[in-house]
Amino acid sequence: MRKGFTLLEMMIVLSVIAVVFLLSVPNISKVMGIINDKSCENQLKVVDTAILEFQLKYDDVPASISELIGEELLTARQGICKNGKRIDIENGKAVIVE
Predict the structure, then answer these.
(1) Does residue 39 fall inside a structural domain?
(2) Region of residue 26 (left: phi > 0; alpha: psi -120 to 50; beta: else)
(3) Phi/psi of residue 58, each to 5°?
(4) What is the C-alpha separation between 31 and 26, in angstroms, rounded?
(5) What pLDDT, in 10s, does the model give residues 56-81?
(6) CB 68 within 8 A of CB 50
(7) Pick from 78, 74, 79: nearest CA to 53
(8) Model-level pTM?
(9) Rounded to an integer, what distance in angstroms lies between the CA atom of residue 55 and that of residue 32?
(10) DSSP string of 46-77?
(11) Are 43 and 81 contacting, i.e. CB atoms less than 8 angstroms apart?
(12) What is the Rg, in whole angstroms, of the alpha carbon atoms belonging to the chain?
């Protein structure tokens, strides 16, 4: 008698793995969306800190993110969230622009 798996056993195992994978994909994408949103909220705090540094240095509020980037208080990547939304400055505070 030969040792090994039959084709039917292999198909059952692969189908169970496929079902588990398909059940976990929506949860993973949902979690990634939450992570990106939280990341953007934390990025707002970083921009607010850069605005405060700018205010302390120039005794004025920056008009846009580009001023903070020009003063090297931020990098260009810090003006865009991972979920693709932009960060801008309105009334001296960092806000997310849709």
Answers:
(1) yes
(2) alpha
(3) -115, 0
(4) 9
(5) 999 999 988 999 999 999 998 988 98
(6) yes
(7) 74
(8) 0.69
(9) 35
(10) HHHHHHHHHHHHHSS--SSHHHHHHTTSS-GG
(11) yes
(12) 24
- Where does residue 62 fall: left (phi above 0), alpha (psi -120 to 50 degrees), or beta otherwise? beta
What is the rounded average pLDDT of the residues 20-43? 89
**66 located within any domain:** yes
Residue 60 belongs to a domain: yes
Domain-located, residue 10: no
Mean pLDDT of the chain: 90
Do residues 39 and 82 lie in contact, with contact meaning Cβ atoms separated by under 8 Å?
yes
The residues, any chain, with a CB within 8 Å of residue 43's CB and separated by 6 or more, are 78, 81, 87
Residue-level pLDDT at 1: 67
Q: Can you tell me which residue has the tokens 């960092």?
A: 94
| The two structure tokens encoding residue 57 | 């240095």
> How is residue 41 written in tokens?
């909220």
**Tokens standing for 71?**
């003063």
